[in-house]
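Field guide to reading this record: the first block holds the primary sequence, the second block holds the structure written as discrete tokens, and the final block holds curator observations. Each block starts with its own label. This record concerns AEC family transporter, catalogued under organism Candidatus Flavonifractor intestinigallinarum.

BLOCK 1 — SEQUENCE
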Amino acid sequence: MVDYLLMVSSQVGTMFLMMAAGFALAKRGLITQAALPQLTNLLLTAVLPCMLVDSMQIERTPALLGAMGYGALLVAGLYVLYCLLSIPLFRRQNPATGKALRFGTLYGNVGFMGLPLIQLVLGEQAMVYGVINLMVFNAFNWSQGVVLMGGRKQVSLKQAVLNPGIIGTIIALALFLCGVTLPSMVGNAVSFLGSMNTPLAMVIIGAQMAAADWRAVFRSPAILLACVLKLAAMPLLTALVLYPLHPEPELYCTLVLLAGVPTASITAMFAQRYGQDVATSAQLVTVSTLLSILTLPCCGVLAALLSGAA
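BLOCK 2 — STRUCTURE
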């Protein structure tokens, strides 16, 4: 168990060192806040889809197809449970702040931080479950998440389907299901671009954190409560709900770890788009990301112990 804790802590520490590089570059003005949207677009529209496609360039087997379907059902069921349990949260806050906090508690940084974490801790073989999780995450994020932040009239099927995460997932799954292996030249290019996902995502997150008001981020009890719910309560709930179902260890560990990733950066983007509390959203993203260096190793050890992987 100690060895596994050290291994997970080492991988999480590696990710935070890359964030620190982004933080330092932004503080020195070598990465400007104006450049971050362009870097984010590069990550979303090219690097992340390539990483998803490369991760699914594996042999299709009946056992793997069954495991993927089972994993998708589990993830969808978990998000339904999360959404139901979040309904009474933060009702005493003003509506704009309460909606931002509920959204930030529900939706974690699955694409930018979760998938790199799974890749580093569990290896390439677990990435298929990460891809399935991202697909379900996007479906809920662009439906229930939009309803939460903007109301039912803001839901757009076009936005829910035609976003880079979903498009990349569809292409990756289509190639996998059809048994198509990319030609060597194309496959290598996709692999090289996809390998940028972890360092680029961490540098962007670190640069975003450089703009935070650190005197304000720890002063809000509501933000700290949301962090406890996101980083501790949600992975613990996930671990306990899945335990009686006995999914295979890789799937179990993947879902518990992804449940414990910090608040998604899209929280602040949605708050801006739909007129909710942008400042609180940004502070929640920053604080939860910082605190996750302490909680993610604990999530990994909990998942490994309960799944029998440790």
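BLOCK 3 — OBSERVATIONS
Residues 278-307 form the longest helix (30 residues).
The chain is about 75% helix and 0% strand.
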